[in-house]
Here is the input.
Amino acid sequence: MKLIRIHPSDNVAVALEEIRKGEELFVDAVSVTASEDIPRGHKIALAGIAAGDPVVKYGNAIAVATADIAPGAWVHTHNVRTGLSEDADYVYEHRVYELPKPAPRTFRGYRRKDGRAAIRNELWIIPIVGCVNGIAKQLVEENRQLVQGSIDGLYYWPHPFGCSQLGDDLAQTKKLLAALANHPNAGGVLCLGLGCENLVLDMFKEALGDYDPARVKFLITQEVADELEEGGRLLKELADYAGQFTREELPASELVVGMKCGGSDGLSGITANPAVGRFSDRLIALGGSTVLTEVPEMFGAENILFSRCESEAVFDKAVRMVNDFKRYFVDHGQVVYENPSPGNKAGGITTLEDKSCGCVQKGGSAQIVDVLRYAEPVTKKGLNVLSGPGNDLVSATDLTAAGAHLILFTTGRGTPFGAPAPTVKISTNTALFEKKRGWIDFNAGTVAEGKETLDEAGDRLLDYVLRVASGEETLAEKHGCREISIFKDGVVL
Here is the structure.
């Protein structure tokens, strides 16, 4: 099979492999002859599309033709444009879909003293200000002997912020770092400050809220003679505390899983993203939670997603989230549809609507139970939508701060990065999986090859996630690819 037509009403199909000019192709009883070479992941017209008419994919308009397009022609940026504008109307038309009914599942995780579950038992050093990044690095290097027994690792999360920031930027830095300090995967946390930064310790503690002093400790480096000696002493205390936790059998309903895509291609919305959607439905059916973010990549597909808000109140929050992000673009003199990226386009994604319709496939078919602000923690079981940008590392950090135990990251072109939460890379195509064996954990290209259905891929992904939750390392973890990035908007003093 060389072509796939995603929805019966689509007037384009997607090439599952490279197509040569003159090839005669068949899909859903439609015959078409390619009038030019068409790369894998790109679109071919199944019928004539007149200039000004919509290009339909996923059963939705994903572009407007800028010229007459003949059957068999390549449909891409040279002959279509986006149909988006800054203004859009949203109407709540509630839809409910039946979820699968999987048998109960478990994983071997850690039970924290506050009752939360964790899938890692790590020691984290969180710089309150970027000035102490180097000290945090030294502390990690000099105290690796603490990683023993049930302690899974010792990490620090460098960043350039915490000082010379004003208003919302300082508030976001404070909120994000405090959320990381509260993450259940951290069995012990050392919060490291300098002493003269804008983000003073009392302000940070206020954002942190109630905390266990045996689990979270603080060091202001200007106040001690030898910060490495004092830091090592505090890390030893944290290691003694964290070492008390051991893995035990926990229900899958305890899991919170983030969902993200990046380096997407024309197969993202056909293989990896809907496979993640199938996984999401299964985890939610088991009583667990998933989190979907990257708001700008919902533009053009909002109505598909938001029709599943469980109530009009949740729908109103979702609309405010989207409109706030649109206003963020406009306030900076940018059009909301300045997307997809050059890599996306090379992979076959033509417009933001095209990208968004594929992106939201990760949300499966479950009801949206809550809409969260940046770095706001998940409190409701089910599918949550989290405010955040499309940038891979910023949004993956945001998902971690929201409490995701691990992150599923789909990609058609590949990327090595990882968030503080274990980050699973899922390839949209088998060629990428075979080429980047040091990056890709899970191959969804099998769906395009007809080797398994999306439901089977979702089942296989659930099995894999439970193994990762039980301690199996992702490739990003094995290679030390773990970092953070904080969303900022304003002035640096």
